[in-house]
User: Which sequence fits this backbone?
């Protein structure tokens, strides 16, 4: 396994088709806690609250935790250098798409245009009856659970709960990227969450060179990773940007 930033940069420069797969780790330096590992949210909360059956059975209890995690913690989070470099790479035609497991909207806020949201997006609430979408700012989250103004049905955050299917557009778009990529950046993911973790594996199977950025080893590191850049996303992406555009 090559651990060389320069090798990674020359591959990114030469590649005619690069895409990126990101996990919660890319947003840690934006102040968004990860789910696993040190300070992981699952150390503090029971993942059950994001199970779709639990949500339908105990909407108030589920919404209390959802508000704390996704609307209080996430409040004010801004893109960091890693999100910004990926957006710049897309602008410079060095990156085709971002496939993210994150629901924090930070790739879009950094300027990325092609973003496949494998687990949806917390910046939208949806009425499961009439399909009307709401911005979080359009509902009163002090009065839980929020309800649709049309039919009074409880609103659901538009992210994928455990037990829900992956949105079709994200599932299909991610596969196209994985099959076509020559170089596949994998940033800030444990590689433990299915079926998201299959996307980098499909890229590898289709001949992509896997460049992984993570301060800790993941399920990918000793299985599909070709170049493991050990470190935090913002710092490493800043070094990559300097060499890409020096
Ligand atoms: N830069 C890069 N990676 C980091 C950083 C950082 N500054 N800090 C932590 N990481 C890495 C950790 O080493 C770990 O591999 O980010 C990962 C965080 O683990 P998870 O929170 O499990 O993230 P991920 O693998 O993306 O799984 C997130 O789990 O509960 C589901 O659907 C939920 O999308 C979510 C998924």
Assistant:
């Amino acid at each position: 396994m090559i651990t060389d930033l320069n090798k990674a940069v020359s591959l990114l420069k030469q590649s005619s088709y690069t895409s990126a797969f990101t996990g919660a780790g890319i947003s840690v330096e934006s102040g968004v806690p990860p789910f696993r590992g040190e300070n992981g949210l699952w150390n503090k909360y029971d993942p059950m609250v994001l199970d779709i059956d639990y949500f339908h059975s105990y909407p108030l209890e589920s919404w209390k935790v959802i508000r704390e995690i996704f609307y209080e913690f996430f409040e004010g989070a801004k893109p960091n250098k890693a999100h910004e470099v990926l957006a710049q790479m897309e602008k410079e035609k060095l990156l085709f798409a971002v496939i993210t497991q994150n629901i924090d909207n930070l790739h879009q806020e950094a300027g990325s245009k092609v973003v496949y949201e494998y687990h949806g997006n917390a910046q939208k609430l949806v009425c499961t009856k009439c399909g009307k979408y709401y911005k979080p700012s359009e509902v009163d989250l002090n009065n839980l659970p929020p309800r649709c103004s049309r039919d009074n049905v409880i609103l659901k955050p538009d992210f994928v709960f455990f037990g829900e299917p992956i949105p079709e557009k994200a599932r299909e778009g991610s596969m196209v990227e994985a099959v076509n990529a020559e170089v596949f950046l994998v940033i800030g993911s444990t590689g433990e969450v299915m079926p998201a973790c299959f996307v980098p594996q499909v890229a590898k199977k289709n001949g992509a060179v896997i460049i992984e950025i993570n301060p800790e080893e993941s399920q990918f590191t000793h299985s599909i990773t070709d170049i493991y850049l050990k470190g935090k996303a913002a710092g490493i992406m800043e070094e990559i940007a300097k060499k890409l555009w020096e």
Residues 23-26, 28-29, 34-37, 40, 101, 119, 188-190, 192-193, 213-216, 218, 232-233 surround adenosine-5-diphosphoribose (CB under 6 Å). Residues 59-73 form the longest helix (15 residues).
